[in-house]
Amino acid sequence: MPALVLAQTFSGRVTSAFYAFERSDTANVTSRHARGYQVFQFDYGNENIAFRTFGQFDNDFSTRLAGDGKVRMYNFHLALKNIAQRVELKLGRQPVFAGAGIGTIDGAQVKVRAARWLHLKAFGGGLLPADQRFQIIDELKKNYMAGGQAVLSPNADWNIGLSYFNKHQRRAGYNALRADSIGNVFSLFVEPSDRAYEFTSLDASWNVRRTSFYGRGDYDMIGDQLSRAEFSIRSEVSSNLVFNGSYTFRSPRLPWNSIFSAFDIENNHEVEGGFYFRHKPTLRFYGNAAAIFYSDDESFRFTVGSECNFGSLSFVNRSGYAGNLNGINASLYYPLNNGKFMPNAQLSWASYKLEAKAGSRESLFSGAAGLLLRPWNVLTIDSQLQYLHNRFYANDARFLVRLQYWFFKKT
Amino acid sequence: MQRRRLIISLAIVFAPLAVVMMVAGGSDQPSSWNDPVEQWVTIKFSHKQHLVDVGAECSQCHAAAQTSENANDLMLPKKAQCAECHSAEVESDCMFCHTAADKYEPYAAPKREVRFSHKQHIEASQLECAACHAGIEASEKPSLAFLPVMSSCNSCHNDVKVTNACESCHTQPETLLPLSHQQANWAKEHKRLVRLEGLSNDCAVCHSDNFCQACHADVTTQFTRGSRTRSVAENRPSLSGGQALVKPRVHDLNFVFTHALDLRSKQADCYSCHNQQTFCSDCHARNQDAGFAAPFPLSHRAADFVRLGKGSGGGQHATLARRDMESCASCHDVEGRDPVCVTCHLDLAPKGK
Q: Could you tell me if A222 and A197 are in contact, meaning their C-beta atoms sit under 8 angstroms apart?
């Protein structure tokens, strides 16, 4: 008779953070906030059973915001592993990543290793209520997502995935002021109809020598059209130099029952290319450029930067229909005493126009300086002063401190 | 014109890539762990000959490993240890061990950013050397290939046998950046691994579901009924706790003012992390005064933004809508009920089955 006594483990990570800032939603009216966050992650289990939790409590100790004092629960599930050496079953609140299907559900998810080269996954459950409240959402029949995925891996270099995703979401009503065609303003209770999506998706990746290919297609089953197609290549000239390129086709992702689906809308195309070069392990350079083609206009994205062991520097540019932006980001962090102390600083500056026709450019600046302390490997203390300057906040200073403790017990 | 430019752009990107693919062929170099590889690969040494043919024990040459409690300890044997068996050759022929006559400098100690005690793993965990240095008994020359890779650590450090908290081994987890992540657009590229979860996918070596949820948790959350002020970015600390302040943020502190640029230039799929439209309308559409208050796009103020009447073309708003409807939807989250559109477009009904 096999031994039924298995080693039990209990692990966790507890993070307490405090964030103080001032903000202004209306000219000359400011409010001060001192927000506290308590993040907790407790896992209990053994070789074949695990119970996982992950949540956050946040509150404002200065100016209370609507909805403060709630517990957000991101994970709360039981995992049964190695059922018949092939099956894993999860029950409860859990994340889902299955091709086109993505999100967090209150439900069930099953993974089956049908064969060494075939993995199957199916999931279904209710969507989460507002603020990830620790309760089951109302009207489950109208707030659900379900789907599945089959991943075929004939060898280590080939992966083909076929997935299906069905999501239905009830929408809350809200009051809004609206104007009629001659400018008369009236109050209106907007009661949106449900949102619905149904997609099938095909993903494929192939590695050959030092090059990898990836392709993806999402098909909107309700709209009866290709929603997204993507093809990308990543090629390593050597272990120090990588080039990548991609092409993306996008159809606007709209719920089929949205009024927007009734209009004559155009797709867009994107072409992107980039490189990554490791001059040496401690010094790296990268660049990336993309052009987005709309029906009658274009946008361009451009990034170039460098990273070293103790910092990074990058320049970002946006131009065309999407607006115009030039930005510089820098970060510096220097570990001392084998990582026990780490002073760090970040600077970010940008000059931008949201629209090509906008008159003057706006500028933004943000900076941060902080210190990380790790007296023992189980305890980390982060502190950071942040400063923002922009058209709305002339001088905005903020303070963030975070304590983090982790543990692992075995019985 | 647009089609022509698209084709030219595709050619500019993919033609050089095709050339790169044809010439690509560098050697697969595993990570050096900051070891002074260039020094010790100048030694002629066959582990196979010593371990298999002669039958030597690892500890005969690497005695320091038995008591080492620091990953930075230098545990390579010195010349005197070689001389215990090879006294004649060591004294008379430098090239018996060395590959080059001008490279005799002493080994530099490695600078490794990990906590590791050989002593603990040998004594307390009763591990054989080959458990981590797999395949070394077959090696004919010094190589990085036999330094353990992190996935081998995870066979025990899996939160079941032993903890897999980053800080348990890494002294500076905030600065970790695996080779696979070292590319210009990793935030965009990582989905190719996640979406397929193939056999080669080893995200779980470092990341739990909780790490992913730091970004991807809100995508299926019901519409928030709270005050609009809750929606203003607070830049709150990372959920997972594993993401350090010094890492680049997903969105910088000023992102609330520039996010329109990233949305329209398709920098990322916003709906991968945010509940599409409802997230946007928390600020953009709810309780606004007929659209005459900020946030209000400059384009909407143009004289010809709306042209009424059949045959008028609709004006600038029609052009913008055709071009990028997702941008319209981010504010005018109508779902068939809000009369922003249907005030004029009376004859339309949503598509679908």
A: yes
